[in-house]
Amino acid sequence: MKFSVIVTDYKRKIYILDALKSIKNQEGIDLNDLELGVVKYYEDKKIDNYIKENFPNYKIINLDPNKDPTNIGYMIAIGIKNTSNNLIFLLDDDD
């Protein structure tokens, strides 16, 4: 069954890699069935490279805090808008 996971990260880079590793290490999940969407307000090559190297289906959405609203509802809405599956899970960076 194909599904999406949206990870929202509001300027807290210290947590997101742990959250992403947690997703990757879940037992019983075929990463080819997972569509990962990461919505964040910054660019970080280390984080982006980890995503690209470990998740075959991903979307990285870097928002601009000077142009986009800086609230969690907006981040979730953008993540949902950019997914292609009906089953969607939400994960904050510090979960």
Describe the overall structure.
The chain is globular and about 40 Å long. Strands 3-2-1-4 form a four-stranded parallel beta sheet, sandwiched between helices. Helix 1 (13-24) runs parallel beside helix 2. The two termini are 24 Å apart. It has three helices and four strands, in the order E-H-E-H-E-H-E. It is an alpha/beta fold.
What is the N-to-C succession of helices and strands?
EHEHEHE
Report helical residue fraction. Answer: 25-40%
Number of helices: 3
Q: What distance separates the N and C termini?
A: 24 Å
Could you tell me the mean pLDDT?
94
Tell me the total number of β-strands: 4
List the main descriptive attributes of the protein structure presented here.
95 residues; alpha/beta; 4-stranded parallel β-sheet; 3 helices
